[in-house]
Amino acid sequence: MTSLLERLRARASQSRARVEDLRSRIAALEKELAAEEAKLSRWAVAEEAVTELLAEDDAGGGEPASGLPPVAVAAARRPQAVVSAPVTRGDGEVLAGASEDVVLALASAGRPLRSREICEAVGAGTEHRPVEGMRVRLKRLVKQGWLTEDQVGLFAIAPGVGDPASAGAVVEAAGGDA
After folding, report:
1. With 0-12 CB in 10 A as exposed, 13-18 as middle and 19+ as buried, what is 88?
2. In the structure, what pLDDT confidence band is assigned to residue 60 with cuts at 50, 70 and 90?
3. Tens digit of pLDDT for each residue in 13-55?
4. CA distance 58 to 81
5. What are phi and psi of 120, to 5 degrees?
């Protein structure tokens, strides 16, 4: 009987040690998370400051903020829309899920997009595999009548797919007054 109790105590001791190890790892991860959240906050403040400076440059007709590459200046000045609504076709069918995000990204862009651009817009990876997966999904949406591909690789919203603005969507310019 004593050997059984000794085995039980040994296993309990192992379990206690594992619990302590996990707690210390959690504490280390919490410190790492706090540091990364602080870094993220600093990036957000920096982005706000750059956007403010660019807005001042636009208002004053001055030159772009020095030190920024022209691509960054152009991207910050480009108006971006945020569109949110259920996507419907003329026949009343509603598109749902990740495919809805694709159509809303196209609506927000206001122009035909390539697979890689759509991946960026919906937050998917821009490596080869996710881009090719997106291309397959886009081709399927073309066959289903939700999108068109007038030029090879350029996808747009198909005629007859409801205008999100007229379907009660919230459309506002990002970073500006709506």
Report:
1. middle
2. low
3. 999 999 999 998 988 888 887 778 777 777 877 888 888 888 8
4. 19
5. -60, -45
Enter the DSSP assignment of 162.
P
User: How many Cβ atoms from other residues are within 10 Å of residue 158's Cβ?
Assistant: 17
71 or 162: which leads in pLDDT: 162
Kindly give, in sequence order, each residue whose CB lies less than 8 Å from that of residue 108, ignoring residues fewer than 6 positions away: 80, 81, 82, 83, 121
pLDDT in tens, 88-112: 777 777 777 768 888 888 888 888 9
Identify the residue whose tokens are 């000045």: 77
Token digits of residue 164: 């999100």
Residues 6+ apart with CB under 8 A from 54: 64, 65, 73, 76, 77
Following CA atoms 134, 136, 139, 140 in sequence, which dihedral angle do they give, to the nearest 10 degrees? -100
- 3 state SS for 71-82: HHHHHHHCCEEE
